[in-house]
Design goal:
glycosyltransferase activity, Glyco_trans_2-like, transferase, globular, Nucleotide-diphossugar_trans, alpha/beta, Glycosyltransferase family 2 protein
Length: about 475
Amino acid sequence: MRDIFQTFFNFVGIFFVIYMIGYASFLFLSVVVGSSTLYGLKRRNMLKNELPSDYYIPVSVIVPAHNEAVTIEATVRSLLALQYKVYEIIVVDDGSTDTTADVVREHFHMRHVNRPIQRSLHCQPEEAVYESRSFKVPITLICKRNGGKADSLNMGINASRYPYFLCLDADSVLQSDSLEKIVRPVLEDDRVVAVGGAVRPGNGAELENGRLINYHMPRGLLACMQVLEYDRSFLAARILFDKFNGSIIISGAFGLFKKSVVVAAGGYDVTTMGEDMELVVRLHAFCRENGIPYRIRYATDAICWTQAPEKLRDLCRQRRRWHIGLFQSMTRHRAILANPRYGLVSVISYTYFLLYELFSPYIEVFGVLTMVLASALDFLNVPFMLLYMGIYVAESSILSLTAFFARIHTIDLRLTAGDVLKAVGICAVEVSCLRFILAWVRMTALIGYRKNRARWGTIERREIQVR
């Protein structure tokens, strides 16, 4: 029996060494590529270039909202401060039970109109439509029956006037140049059907007229750890995937899409919790199956500031929804796996998300439980295991800090010495402790998920610091 256990633990040990080396190698490559790309852009002054006023595409900005009375005014005001020639703002109130619609109507001087909305995509019916012409761009408020975020986005697409639409969460704000920067890839290449922007936690950021005037690390340690996590993800992995048209996620908080292609592909799927990822994966499939030349890009200098959860309970709810959305997207489009038709999207993107995102919580939790069992049965080489884990945590921490400081430096942010020490001090905690907590949350996410798949989910909001 002891020989059987010894063989089992040896096999598991080899598997985990290979698995962790694979993840560490990918993280290293993505951080190196991401950092070098950012510094290359900075050297060429592309991060400060503005789009010539004679070149633009009209954009409809869609803001789905459900019980966002605390943040919706600041979000819309940030949109009014955008430096862009032609765009419209559409707020879709998805059956809110708070004063979301009242806040928008009162602060932006809206009046009720009888405006028909063509149903290119299925969605719950509108109950009232309001418009405002008191500002430099038209603002539309659509109050509709509750149907979920994807349903609200479909309504916004139906009501939009322009050939491209931008999705923005109601708890997020854009910098004044973000719209022109996320549009730039479309102007450079007419094959582009979607562009993702860089999403950063806005806890600690203060904006005035769409410009960042003050930034510091969030006071809460949980929000600080998410700052490091976001920069590692949005700086590193997404820039790397962008190099070979392999992006299969565009954050629902900030993404630009070509309306005609999205409508032809069927719009947002109202039966999934991860409508943002599912749409992007479906666009890959739709374009390749129909022989449509396309690109899905990532605009690393187009910045959206969003609210990161400051309570562990809220963060767990958010990550649970994300993992369910990942599961739904990958299972519905499983034909992409090992399919030569999809090229590097299949070989690299889908395989990475399958092994290191969808399966990772199960693998990691199983690994920890195996170490506990091996230690109890005296099969574990404790000094070697501690050394191995220490090396992994140290490497991951260094790469996280590299991504974080590269982002800070290349967008000319200034941190105090206290903020720097805070970032350095918590990086190892984020990589080890928080990662394991979220692994457990993600591992249990699929239990009973079908009952709540149409719900928005509730996260405590704070007023956004916008002047």
